[in-house]
Amino acid sequence: MVALMPEDFTDLLIPRPEGLFCAAGGFFIDPVRPVERALITHGHSDHARSGHGAVLASRQTLDIMAIRYGADFAGSTQVAEGVMRLGEAEVSFHPAGHVLGSCQVAVTKGGVRAVVSGDYSRVANPACAPFEPVSCDLFVTEATFALPVFTHPDPASEIAKLLASMAAQPERAHLIGAYALGKAQRVIMLLRQAGYDAPIYIHGALQRLCEYHLEQGIPLGELRPATMDKAEAKGLREAVVIAPPSAFASPWVQRFVDPVIGFASGWMQIRGRARQRGVELPLILSDHVDWPDLTGTLRELNPEEFWITHGRDDALMRWAELEQRRARPLHLVGYEEEAE
Amino acid sequence: MKAFADLLERLAFTPGRNAKLALLEAFFRAVPDPDRGYALAALTGGLETGQAKPALLRALVGERVDPELFQMSYHYVGDLAETIALIWPARGQPRDVPLTEVVETLSDAGKTEVPGLMARWLDALSPSERFALIKLVTGSLRVGISARLALTGLARIGTVPLEDIEELWSGFTPPYAPLFDWLEGGPRPEVTARAPFRPVMLSTPVTETDLPSLNPSDYAAEWKWDGIRVQAVSEGGLARLYTRTGEDISDSFPDIVERMRFDGALDGELLVRRGTEVAPFSDLQKRLGRKSPSKAMLASHPAALRLYDVMVWQCEDLRPLPWAERRPRLEAAIAGLAEDRFDVSERLPFDDWHALAALRADPPAAVIEGVMLKRLDSAYTAGRPRGPWFKWKRDPKVVDAVILYAQRGHGKRSGFYSDFTFGLWDGDTLVPVGKAYSGFTDEELNKLDRFVRNNTIDRFGPVRSLKAKLVVEVAFEGLNRSTRHKSGVAMRFPRISRIRWDKPAEEADRLTALTDILDEAGQ
Question: What is the nearest CA distance from B111 to chain A, expressed in angstroms?
């Protein structure tokens, strides 16, 4: 008699302090500490760290890591292409729709497949390739916005808010806080798609990553460094300046007289979060799945079990209970939820 | 509902007063009648609301969302209306629900119909519209603007002065069609309001250096009392107590209103008075904002009016008369009123400014803020004309305090650390006692900003915790005991009067410098 035991995936993947480990292939996925062999889903610094022995990732993720950490960020690197054999496991990379170069990692052994999604989004993003659903037995998901209050609005309507505010107050420069990799380029692309074709000013911290997006064929249009002096800044009309949020705490911002401070983030959906940051123009723009997209993806893939790496795992576990789905919180430490 | 929801959202995030006024003006210009009228009613607190209680909304959402998930979400968001607005599953066909539909339908609806109506509206609306709807029907708009600011924004759509609008305001009812018509060029409406509010005459500040240019014999002087300026109107059998911005506070002060047995409109200071002794402002504060004060509160904190002026008496408008003629009319007017509740503000005898300065320096009660000067020939004019009435406040009290935290400012101060929390010594530790964000020049702001950046110990969002190094002289107008502040005291109008770059933090004042003032005043 065969007992109907649930599949045990720990042979395929197991959480360790360094990150998710695949014993069959001898590698970690997005480890938070230096390891011998790392597979990296995308270039955000909490997932892609320097100092690993060997790194396997998409071409673009490797390029981004080199831009951020220098060419010698790892002992050796390999570009992910097609199905690759690592030890006893087969590995393939699939777009995650999160930022340029972001991928899910599929790991297969003995006909059982796990997909580690890294961070992902299901909303069309003009700055990167769309999420590819990969059928699997075990799906490893993030839960950054896993509360049913997060239903992120259509990005075009958020950009329309920005353009309307610029038109209504043309003399005030609009300073939009956006993280350097992904969000900044997405805001720029959304502006371009909405027909805004004037030069866009960018803070120095965004320059190299924006240049890289241009090299990769993302048509960001004309970008100018936001290094003008006070007099020049005053003369700008209907100007938009993109900067990392940390720049608003630096004296750099003092060159703008009475600017409108905006922030592009999925957290802006909550009024208190926007007010806490002193934001006058909250733009709800997220690189992560919101609640409907997260639960929709889980229903669509319908894996035998799903694991939750980080975020609001309590709410997602409750959802799994209501839906009678097998789920497990991993409580992985080291992934930032704020930087969105 | 969309335009109204947008307005509420923008008002919530827009820091500057002028920017808020621009938003209000644009709204009242763009939105048609009667929607804009109901919006105005909602913003000025003149809308009959409260049809849907929070419990009803929780029950509605409980039928649609798992209670555990709701609880986690509510805990995270922290605001019930916002949580419901965001979590409500969008089911219905989206449509615009005009404000008018909500207001008029609810006013006709029976209690049992309300849940069904609310559910259908919530189904049809976007999250920010749902938020506006819930705030509207639960009667807790709290959008950070006063009724007066709403009227100020409204006045901008036409050329009618704000004072004229305020004069007639209490005679209009939602949705205010004749008011909008008037503002947009129509005739001045014949309003037959009972016991309406009339715009108040305000004073401008004066200092010692201004006084020599004024002739003492042109002026009468009175104490400036630290209560709240009110207007007591009793006409046609209806008695109303208004603040100086026209807010009706009759419900909070039944002990005054029921004794307003006269026919006219009087101007005065609302105080808590026990016998002849006027209690500190903090006693009055306990009475403010309470819709129906308890018997115990009415007994322990009895309210009284100290009258400054008479505006209307027995249907006669006395405002055009000079002050010197109004004064005897006022004295005659209060003859029949309860003496423990109504008295006339004392006229101070003085021959020259030195004599008045001596009185001002040593007032008979701690709740006196200074002296008022009123030209004997001044008519009662709405607004704040410069000249007829002056306030000559007592010199502010000062303490030397240490800056503990700094927060970045908004608008023109974007990127500058301009909001400071300061503390005083209590034993070996510095206890925060207040916040100040004014009193310094732009040049000093630059230096303060640099100081903050070079002396940061820790950061919490936009707030920086600083090395306890910099001493500032903080000027303030008054003190209250406070249970909400760790230090046990709360300052009124604190501002930085001097930056003491020279003074070591150890030499800053102790908390007892403040508590001694309170002890002396018997608080």
Answer: 29
Query: Is B402 in contact with B468 (CB distance < 8 Å)?
Result: yes
CB contact under 8 A, B414 and A248: yes
* CATH classification of the domain holding A247: 3.40.50.10890
Question: Which residues of B135-263 form beta strands (DSSP E)?
Answer: 204-205, 219-225, 228-235, 238-243
Beta carbons of A240 and A176 less than 8 angstroms apart: yes
Q: Put residue A62 in one of left, alpha, beta given phi > 0 → left and psi -120 to 50 → alpha.
A: alpha
Give the pLDDT score at B416: 87
Evaluate if residue A2 carries a pLDDT over 50.
Answer: no
Q: Point out the domain boundary residue: B86, B104, B138.
A: B138
pLDDT in tens, B453-464: 999 999 887 789
A251/B449 CB distance under 8 A:
yes
Kindly report the pTM of this predicted structure: 0.81
Amino acid, res. A8: D
Domain CATH number, residue A32: 3.60.15.10
| A78 plus A204 within the same structural domain | no
Distance CA B39, CA B31 (A): 10
Q: Residue B128's Cα: distance from chain center in Å? A: 27
Ramachandran quadrant class, B12 (left: phi over 0; alpha: psi -120 to 50; beta: rest):
alpha
Nearest-by-Cβ selection for A282 from B13, B87, B412: B13
For residue A301, the Cα-to-chain-centroid distance in whole angstroms is 20
Residue B498 and residue B488 in contact, taking contact as beta carbons nearer than 8 Å: no
Pair B287, B382 in one domain: yes
